[in-house]
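FAQ: What does the model actually see?

It sees only this:
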Amino acid sequence: MARFYVPEPQIEKGLLKVDGSEVKHIRKVLRLKTGDRITIFDGLTKEYEGTIVESESSSVSIRIQNAFSPERDSPLEITLAQSLLKGEKMDYLIQKATELGVKEIVPFFSSRSISLPENSKKLERHDRWEKIAVAASKQCGRGVLPEIRSLQNYSDMLRSVPQDSLRLILWEKERVGLKEVLKGAMEKKKIFFLVGPEGGFSQEEVDQSKEKGFIPISLGKRILRAETASLCLISILQYEWGDIG
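And it is asked to produce this:
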């Protein structure tokens, strides 16, 4: 059954009205019509199953037959703080991190990141990332959308880290491996980890993170691309402590 995202849906007398961009997706892309069943999710906790009873050019009305809170989201609260990547790599990373169940994505600038875009470009990128997260959530069945924070600098990002989380920073010069750290750590529900740009973190940035309680770790002898390292670590955490496997 096709899923569509409607934030703060308004339901009156059992009818839920869909408008905006999802109408085009329902009517023009999937060519759904009166009598077809669909699912609506609000991006927080609720889903609604129903049947299309009216389809117009600017809106579609759904007769709700079932409302529920699915349990498809990870029990872990994983925050991925990722230094800004080039081109479409960031888009790809946000899509796949959403599928893997991260709760939050924090894009930031570090000393070796690509150049800082203008404010208008920042807003465009953030809007694009949110749309990618919505599309990925629709596809994979997530009920809760990940939060995509606004772009920030490295120091501001470090100041926002929850003190009750397991804090990790991936660093290619570190000899201590993730396996060793996870064995020695009590299982945590909150994990906040940092991944640098293609050029990696500087020694000064690693030292700054350690002052904030971060543990430098390695994922092995091979040097992974930034987006590969991020997705690798999310997958391992979900397997060890979350809902994969």
